[in-house]
Amino acid sequence: MRSPFILTAVSALLAAVSGMCPEPELKSQSPIDIPQLSGVPNNKNVDVAFPQTSNGVLRNEGETLKLFWDGGKGSHLNLKDKTFSALQFHFHAPSEHRVRGYQYPFEMHIVHQATDKSLAVLGVLFEVDPNDNDFLNQVWPSISQLGDKGTNVSVSNIAGSTLNIGDNTGFFRYQGSLTTPPYAEGVEWTVVREVQKISQAQLDAYTAKIAEKNAREVQPLYGRKVILYEGFGN
């Protein structure tokens, strides 16, 4: 058996090494405050489409509502030469991303995955408007059917085409991370420039189910480049 002196010396050495080699600082975190940018032509850097309807399962995660949804046949998020397929979308109130310091009341994240398991997220911002949002109206009737955390309800015929992503859409692109633990980096972020509309009634229906705010604070850029691509993949 090793003596207490040897064990103490080993522990002291390990502690010293740990102090000399701290955990690396994460410098590609999300969300961010999107700065003022001049746009550049898209040139097929971003191409997103949801041409068909698809069924999904809405789940109360406790911190958010999440809908497991594949986007429908033929849906895709193409980033340059890489294709990502939809897995799910969920919500944050207020928004996680800010634009020139402004925080929107609501944000949707459509999480995509490539065949190599890498992730890309399409962020959609919402501003309050007198009219309902057509896309959200496909999901919102099911919110009242959800119970507490862990409950599910099926949702049929969700048409991603009702999202306002048209030929003149712009996209903010940057390298980031998940916005929830473990905050893993290497996530391709695309935030739609055009802000969608959500009615106060729709927002109230969401916050009645998820009362706690669930937006992570914006993170430093640390020199990362944010690009505004204009146009729809021309």
Automatic annotation (TrEMBL):
Q: Which GO terms describe its molecular function?
A: carbonate dehydratase activity; zinc ion binding
Q: Which residues form the signal peptide?
A: 1-19
Q: What SMART domains has UniProt attached to this entry?
A: Carb_anhydrase (SM01057)
Query: Which keywords describe this protein according to UniProt?
Result: Lyase, Metal-binding, Signal, Zinc
Q: Which domain of life is it from?
A: Eukaryota
Q: Which residues form the Alpha-carbonic anhydrase domain?
A: 1-230
InterPro entries recorded: Alpha_CA_prokaryot-like, CA_dom, CA_dom_sf, Carbonic_anhydrase_a-class, Carbonic_anhydrase_a-class_CS
What PROSITE patterns does the record tag this protein with?
A: ALPHA_CA_1, ALPHA_CA_2
Tell me which cofactor or cofactors this protein depends on. Zn(2+)
**Which reaction equations make up its catalytic activity?**
hydrogencarbonate + H(+) = CO2 + H2O
This entry's Enzyme Commission designation comes to 4.2.1.1
Q: What class of enzyme is it?
A: lyase
Among Gene3D superfamilies, the record links this protein to: Alpha carbonic anhydrase
For this chain, the family text in UniProt reads: Belongs to the alpha-carbonic anhydrase family.
| Entry function | Reversible hydration of carbon dioxide.
Annotated protein name in UniProt: Carbonic anhydrase
The protein's organism comes out as: Thraustotheca clavata
